[in-house]
Amino acid sequence: MQTDSLADRILNGDRRALARAITLVESGRADHRAQATALLDELAGAGRQALRIGLSGTPGVGKSTFIESFGMMLTGQGLRVAVLAVDPSSARSGGSILGDKTRMERLSREKNAFIRPSPSQSHLGGVARRTREAIALCEAAGFDVVLIETVGVGQSETVVAEMSDLFLLLLAPAGGDELQGVKRGIMEMADMVLINKADGDLKATATRTCADYAGALRLLRKRPQDPDGFPKAMTVSAVEEHGLEQAWAEMQTLTAWRREAGHWATSRATQAQYWFEQEVRHALLARLSTPQMRDRMDELGAKVSSGNISPSAAAEQMLSDLSGH
User: Can you list the alpha helix ranges (DSSP code H) found in 167-290?
Assistant: First the structure.
């Protein structure tokens, strides 16, 4: 696979070249990793940027419906939209995201949209690295908005927030006690909370839920990257397509303010440093998984089990062996 010709085709917006490039960055083979790194370096010079929107929500909240309706609205405005997924659970459960190409039927047929499910990986680091690189490829291909969906709960939200410019939390209408079920950490990461399914019988409940979350957001400490009024809670209906344009207008307002105030550039620089550190950690862990190192781990593990050596002394030996390789 010639990376220079592939790079040219991606810069010209060739979707097949983009799909091939994402397959390349998903590969764990050493030669493919080298090609992927060369390709990403070549494309970085183009300096293209998209608005990266991270999206999370509880199962059954209607993420796929929201993404399809939101994506169709954006493509209707002449924007090019890419949808990527971070699914750390897929190796165990199959993860619902892999059905998204069939569930987002309208969006998948849209010429200005690109949907890519995540690979099945058993650990979050692998999925995160591939998704981050896929975002860079979508930006180089000229997409205006990249939506990054997470179906995991907990750590995957943190990972997605670290590769997004805006982080949206999608919630369903519910009674007041449901507020207890949303972790404070996720609330603190959210730039906007969208209460979906604000239609039909649930409309009044959604309005009440929105007020509850708006109150909860006001209690959180003020973040430097937020203008007055943010983070904010809003109601949307993905089915009836109500509130989507208002939500998009608020996202643009927040993005414009962050750009002017210098938070956008600072955030991107901090994220780049974060991913550099993650790459180093990832490479070190990969060195531990070589057959030679695994044998040494088993050998020292047996000595620890039998009480012949303390865990900390065994760890010191292991690190000493590792630095010698």
Answer: 184-189, 203-219, 244-261, 263-288
Task: Tell me the two tokens of residue 256.
Answer: 């414009």
At residue 20's C-alpha, the angle toward residues 78 and 97, to 5°, is 70
Q: Residues near 256 by Cβ (< 8 Å), separated by ≥ 6?
A: none
Cβ burial of 267 (10 Å; 0-12, 13-18, 19+) is middle
Residue 82 has φ and ψ, to the nearest 5°, of -115, 140
Other CB atoms within a 10 A radius of the CB of residue 89 amount to 20
Burial (0-12, 13-18, 19+ Cβ within 10 Å), 28: exposed
**Non-local CB neighbours of 142 within 8 Å, separated by 6+ positions:** 11, 13, 48, 80
pLDDT digits (tens, 9 = 90+) for 256-311: 999 999 999 999 999 999 989 988 888 888 888 888 999 999 999 999 999 999 99
Q: Which residue has the tokens 């044998």?
A: 295
- pTM for this model (two decimals): 0.85
C-alpha to C-alpha distances, 108 to 68, 133, 196, nearest whole angstrom: 9, 21, 22
CB 142 within 8 A of CB 48: yes
DSSP label at residue 118:
P
Strand, helix or coil for residue 241: coil
Question: 127 is written with which tokens?
Answer: 């999925």
